[in-house]
Amino acid sequence: MDKLTLYIGNKNYSSWSFRPWIALEGCGIAFEEVLIPFDFPAGNPRIREVSPTGRVPLLVHDGLKVWESLAIIEYAAELFPDAGLWPRERQARAMARSISMEMLAGFRALRNACPMNIRRPISRLDLPEGVMEDVARIETIWREMRARSGGPFLFGAFSGADAMFAPIVNRLEVYDLVSAADTLDYMAAMKALPAWQKWEKAAREEPWIVPEDEA
């Protein structure tokens, strides 16, 4: 099988890159990483040289280009059906896809007000309307899925659904948005993943600063 190549942006800021990266890394799928930093005010023109959308992430495999985080996870799940990217049980798999799509399409108040920023010191912001409603819904999802599966992750073992929510873990922590014990327990499980720690270490070592993402 030809190698997978995943094009990503800055690890400190690129939430959409983080999702497929931690999905592949966390499930033991080998891939080559190519980081193109968006260290220009309007991004980086090098991204347009490889990506049809001008954005990352982008997966390239056997001449095929796959973009958008969830599409990349789905493609990898088809290539590696035993890697655990989705739960084996049909109902759990349907719920995993449902909450992943909800993450993809929703929570805009939280995402807009609180950009992912691995290096950010923990501190609160004055939050616009809608942010805490998003946080409450996310906590409900995590609570219900872990109650059903028994944890420690949303569907027992780490999966693509956890990967889709990985940047939210960072947001809830660095903007000091949650205090419930079960929420913090899930966040701790995510942050204990070797894949998470590998990404975090690299993010903290990056030289680039993007002022627009320094909330």
TrEMBL record:
Note whether Metal-binding occurs among the keywords: no
Q: Which biological processes are named by the entry's GO terms?
A: glutathione metabolic process; L-phenylalanine catabolic process
GO terms of molecular function: glutathione transferase activity; maleylacetoacetate isomerase activity
Q: Which PROSITE patterns match?
A: GST_NTER
Q: Which InterPro entries match?
A: Glutathione-S-Trfase_C_sf, Glutathione_S-Trfase, Glutathione_S-Trfase_N, Thioredoxin-like_sf
Q: Does the keyword Cytoplasm apply?
A: no
Q: What is its EC number?
A: 2.5.1.18
Alphabetized SUPFAM superfamilies for the sequence: GST C-terminal domain-like (SSF47616), Thioredoxin-like (SSF52833)
What UniProt keywords are attached to this protein's entry?
Answer: Transferase
Know the name of this protein?
Glutathione S-transferase
Organism of derivation: Rhizobium paranaense
